[in-house]
Amino acid sequence: MSLYEKIVFNLPEVQAPLEKKLPLKTKLKWTLLVLVLFFIMGLVPLYGADATVLKQFEMLSVILGASFGSIITLGIGPMVTASIVLQLLNGSGIVKFDTSSSAGRKKFQGTQKLLSYGFIILEAFIYVMMGGLKPDAGVSPLLIVFQLLLGGIMIMFMDDLVTKWGIGSGISLFIAAGVSQTIFIRALNWLPSPTNPDISAGAIPALVQSLARGDPTTAALMFSGVFATALVFVVAVYVQSMKIEIPLTISRIRGYSYRWPLNFIYTSNIPVILVAALLANIQLWARLLQNWGHPILGTFSGSSPASGFILWVTPTNLVSHIIQGSFTASLILHALVYVLFLMTGAVVFSWFWVQTSGQDAGTIAKQIMNSGLSIPGFRKDPRMLEYLLNRYIKPLTVMGALAVGFLAALADLTGAFGGGTGILLTVMIVYKMFDDVSKQHTEEMSPLMQTMGKR
Fold first, then answer.
1. Is the CB of residue 403 less than 8 Å from the CB of residue 428?
2. What residue ranges in 116-270 does DSSP mark as E strands?
3. How many whole angstroms separate alpha carbon 405 and alpha carbon 407?
4. Among candidate residues 240, 158, 165, 182, the one with its CA nearest the CA of residue 430
5. CA 67 to chain centre
6. Predicted pLDDT at 379
7. Could you give the C-alpha distances from 103 to 22, 49, 164, in angstroms and in order?
């Protein structure tokens, strides 16, 4: 074993449970505990830091599971960035991991964790040394860096804890929590708006007040946001429920059949998370490059992109422009570029994720064979099963990613609360968690299903 393998195989981690299948109550307990801890950490401010500069990145906090100015300012950004880099390196063949073996998967996960530590350190120093977080007078910048490192590492371990002891993953849980909080505040906040103290900051109270005051423009803007948010929720739930079920038979039990589900959104929310994190990093680096005097990625005017590449990959609220009478033909081109970027990025990351996460046809075929299942009418040959699965998995990987990318972009362009990407992610995360809870509850209630699950 090489020195590198010794390092990645022995990185600190949360110990996995001894039981192969934890009880549902135990998983719910740990998930709730981590969620409460996440919200508490978001309320702990960085000691000795002036976080006013970071307010311009406020929208990034939604998709990064972060709370800028708190101890979890970095959020899940370093972990997702590490995943993006490793996916691209592995997919392009520059670095190759044999994810079909347990040792290869462990090496891949260890490398990703090591990269995450590296990006935690890098982003912490970037935020502090490049002006994102200014220390107060008499406070050492290294103290701010240390707090950011502590928060980033705690988020990593909390993600590991949820993955092994809870439901889903910590990354998904943190995103859903942040987006849900944002939607709740933007929809129901009755406090005065900082830009217009005459009406409430929340859309629903502002809608009622605008109608009472006879202000149709403001009322239309508030209603469009509420309607877009509700519409995205409904469409996302419908798309998430679409699936293909492959009929299987159990050779040990005559006459018993089982349907193996393949979701239309085959790779779930992972591609959208990776694309959203990529956009967040592009915006962060564009801002930093402009501050350094090298606006290669574009320029900003205040907190909004003004020109260059960053402008084209930042969504614009088309509905708001139409209501306010400021709609122009150039906005259509802007919207098309943004939609194509999200759809292309979703397909690329979806394809890489299938190959590295054990969701490819070969791995699924082995799981089916090891469970004692087979497709009726076909011989029990993993190669034949892999061929048949590829007829479904490959198209679902591409089509599902295209649908997710398009829906996320469309929601962003209509001004849905929490951002279209954030809402879509939240719906998919909550739906997946509900599906996992339902499946485990069924297995615990049915001895036969529990036996199959253990296999």
1. no
2. 134-135, 243-250, 257-263
3. 6
4. 240
5. 16
6. 65
7. 24, 43, 18
**If 0-12 CB within 10 Å is exposed, 13-18 middle and 19+ buried, where does residue 123 land?**
buried
Q: What is the pLDDT of residues 414-455, one digit of tens each?
A: 888 877 677 877 887 888 888 888 877 777 776 544 544 444
Distance of alpha carbon 125 from alpha carbon 142, whole angstroms? 9
Q: Position 353: which residue type?
A: W
Q: What local confidence, expressed as pLDDT, does residue 319 receive?
A: 86
Residues in contact with 122: Cβ distance below 8 Å, sequence separation at least 6, in sequence order: 78
Q: How far apart are the first and last CA of the chain?
A: 31
CA atoms of 57 and 42, how far apart (whole Å): 16
DSSP 103-148: HHHHHHHHHHHHHHHHHHHHHHHHHHHTTSSEEPTT--HHHHHHHH
* Residue count (the chain): 455
pLDDT tens-digit series, residues 57-105 = 555 666 677 787 889 888 888 888 888 788 777 766 777 777 667 778 7
| DSSP assignment string, 260-281 | EEEESSTTTTHHHHHHHHHHHH
What are the CB-based long-range contacts (under 8 Å, 24+) for 27-31? Answer: 27/165, 27/166, 27/167, 27/440, 28/166, 28/167, 28/437, 30/161, 30/162, 30/165, 30/166, 31/162, 31/166, 31/167, 31/168, 31/173
Integer Rg of the chain from CA = 24
Q: Say if residues 148 and 129 touch (Cβ distance below 8 Å).
A: no
Please, what are the domains in the chain?
A: 1-166 (1.10.3370.10), 227-455 (1.10.3370.10)
Contact 135, 49 (CB under 8 A): yes
Strands 257-263 and 299-301: unpaired
Residue 270 has what pLDDT? 75
Rounded to 5 degrees, what are φ and ψ at 62?
Answer: -65, -45
**pLDDT at 115 (0 to 100):** 92
Long-range contacts of 34-38 (CB under 8 A, 24+ apart): 34/158, 34/161, 34/162, 34/166, 34/170, 34/173, 35/173, 35/177, 37/158, 38/65, 38/72, 38/158, 38/173, 38/174, 38/177
CB 235 within 8 A of CB 407: yes
What are the DSSP E strand ranges found in 8-112? Answer: 49-50
Residue ranges of the chain whose pLDDT lies below 50: 448-449, 451-455
